[in-house]
Amino acid sequence: MIEIKKGKVIELDKEYIIENYSLNTENNTIDVVLRDTSYNQLIIIPLSNLQEKLLEQYEKKNKQEDEKLTPFDKIDEELLKEAQRRLEIVKAVMNAKSVKEREEIAKKYNVHLSTIYRWMERYKKSGETIYGLLPRYERRGGKGKKRIGEKALEIIDKMIKERYLTHQRISAKRLYEEINAELISQKLKPIAYTTLLYYLKEIDRETIYKKREGRNKYLSTINPAKNSFEANYPLEWIQIDHTPLDIQVVSEIDRKPIGRPYITVALDVYSRMVYGIYISLDPPSYYSVGQAIYMGLINKNHYLETLGIEGDWNINGIPVNIHTDNAAEFDGTNLEKFCMTFGINLVYRPVGKPFYGGHVERFIRTLNKELHNVSGTTFSNTKEKREYNPEKEAVFTLKELEKFIVYWIVNYYHQKPHDGLQGLTPYEKFKEGLTKSNFGIRVLSQDELRIARISLLKSDYRNVSKEGIRFKDLHYYSDILVRYAGDNKKYEIKYDPKDITKIYFYDENLQDYIEIYCKTPIPPGTTLWELEKAKEMLRERREKITSYKIYEAIKELRKMEEEAREKTKLMRKQIESNKTKLSSKEVSEKLEKPIDKTEEKPQTQIKKPNEIKPFDIEFDF
Questions:
Q1: Which end of the chain, N or C, is more open, meaning fewer C-beta atoms within 10 Å of its C-beta?
Q2: CB-hemisphere CA count at 13 Å for 331?
């Protein structure tokens, strides 16, 4: 895990300090202003590019140190309990007001203070994740690590408490100068600026806020006034909610209606930017919540490229708090382990206080209102719908709807002034939060993202035979399975419904998930939906379900899908060549939809959607 934060010293081709952030209006991206520590020159680099460079360095360093992470859903319960005990001790020491108080805490828990300092160091090195406190870290030793003497630590601790954690709110740079002046006067070796930043980062964010901003202001943030819930900086609070969308979608094969999809939305409360989404025909579950969170963890540039959408969706990283309702689908052990592992506070919405989830609910209402202008809308109630038949008018496939919604989020919603943000757009508010606050964006490494992605996938349990694992009428095999074959024990597997050409099997010896590929010949990138549709087709034809038949059926489905796409392209070309004004229905049937940034579209009670004009989005998948 890496952190990008104002005032932090980083190494690229040379040493830089992160000065600030700026909004690039030409490219509509967030840039980072860096100052060269040697020549005091400023350079500007896009935030996403800086993340990539720092992550590349992080990966290279960890590879050299042979760091290996245990999937968070496979952490032994006893080890997890011990890590939680250590976290309790570390937090207590971090919040202690003096060295004497730290010593009393160490005595209370019967742990030597130097041991607690080592735990703190590992905790910070792991990006404030539970990995840094797992007992297995004990075997790694501490080669090459510099130690600061107890006398110097006492001076640093005292000056942080007396000078930094006060209403005077002096800067970290000023504190650094004062600490070194005191150390030199005591004939002690001065510390590096990065060392001070390291110790400041150890202090709990809540403690810093209460000491520097005041207890009353802090309490006002965690006990919101009636009908309000606000955040102080980006990624402090992520609210999650889900609902059926007010639209019918059609099959990619025959364009027949197949139902209303669900959307799970994760929203950044501070900026109102969308942190992540997941759209599916399946009801909300732990999986859908996990997928929305995972989207929020990643850099979304590649995702936008796969959809063919130009724009910037520059919000990603580990949030401080995740806020959900108390529904059963959120109450997953793996979700709680995920949050615990990466230092996220999981908060369930209080019963009888719906305003705690008001921001994300308002966003969903805004999105559904936008969908009321699209053919296939179900509207929000029967009165609005009247004689309008959404199944007959439906035109979007699930993929096309996802592309439409993402385009609307990135190029309309994020760019439109928001009533709750004093006229700022969500994108501008996010940038303002980066500039004005001193929080750090914590970004996961590729290995951490891999562990998070796999652990948040769907689970099932299967026996292992000498032929491998049979799952969904498919066979999966790897030599790694041989030692597990024939013991009649059911093992947990993970699978991604969007690609069932492989599953993930947890190898207890390697303590990692291993990719097990499908032995049954199926086309690359086969989805679970395609597989189930192929088997349904074979059953309707009363044909035996065999590996060969499944393969041929999926190929046939893809051919039908391609033919449907070609028909859509042909219809679109006919629209472009038509010089006459098209009706709303005709345009909707061609999958075209406007983005009008100049005025709000009123919600009216009509039989059919408002007139929709075409815009340049090609729905090619």
A1: C
A2: 5
Which candidate, 249, 275, 252, 289, places its Cα nearest to that of 377?
249
Within 249-333, strands assigned E span 249-250, 257-259, 262-268, 274-280, 321-324
Residue whose entry in the numeric block shows the structure tokens 């995740």: 322
In the beta sheet, which residues pair with residue 21?
A: 32
- Tokens for 309, please give them: 């959408």
Yes or no: say if 51 and 336 are a contact pair by the CB < 8 Å rule: no
pLDDT in tens, 151-197: 888 888 888 888 888 877 788 888 888 998 999 888 888 888 878 87
Whether residue 10 has pLDDT greater than 80: yes
* 436, two tokens: 């004005």
The pairing of beta strand 469-471 with beta strand 274-280: unpaired
Residue with tokens 């719908």: 385
By C-alpha distance, which of 3, 139, 144, 137 is closest to 69? Answer: 137
For the record, the structure tokens of 95 come out as 């919040």
Least confident range from 295-304, 357-366, 553-562: namely 553-562
Nearest residue to 504 (alpha-carbon basis) of 547, 469, 537, 550: 469
Q: Which domains does the chain have, with CATH numbers?
A: 11-67 (no CATH), 69-202 (no CATH), 233-450 (3.30.420.10)
Q: Between vectors from CA 513 to CA 511 and to CA 516, what angle results, nearest 5°?
A: 135
State if pTM tops 0.70: no
Question: How confident is the model over 407-423, as pLDDT tens digits?
Answer: 999 999 998 998 888 88
Indicate the SS3 state at residue 175: helix
**Residue for token digits 């506070």?**
345
Distance CA 42, CA 543 (A): 69
DSSP codes joined into one string, 44-77: EEEHHHHHHHHHHHHHHHHHHHT--PPPGGGS-H
Nearest residue to 47 via CA among 34, 37, 61, 36 = 34
> Minimal CA–CA distance to 408: which of 396, 420, 391?
396
